[in-house]
Amino acid sequence: EVEAILIYDRQGTIGDFIREVRHILKILPYEKIYGYFIKHEDDGKDENELAQAQEIATDAISLAKCISELNLTSTSVIHVDTAGIVQRKLSNKINILK
Question: Could you tell me the superkingdom of the organism this chain comes from (predicted)?
């Protein structure tokens, strides 16, 4: 499990944001990603409970949307699932600071 802090200015598209996430975690373009999930640490739930986490859609239309639609805060955590088992094992985690 890798953790990193990413400072992002809430401008640009979701696609740009995902590119930055992959860059900071050193995820190569050919590596398989099973999903990106947003967990808000201030929602009072257990850190391991990702059943309520919001998945970031990665289709062409969603990637062109503005990053502000994700409602990220300084307590938001982006989970990048590289194992395919998001409920049990998280491979990478990023704290988002605004």
Answer: Eukaryota
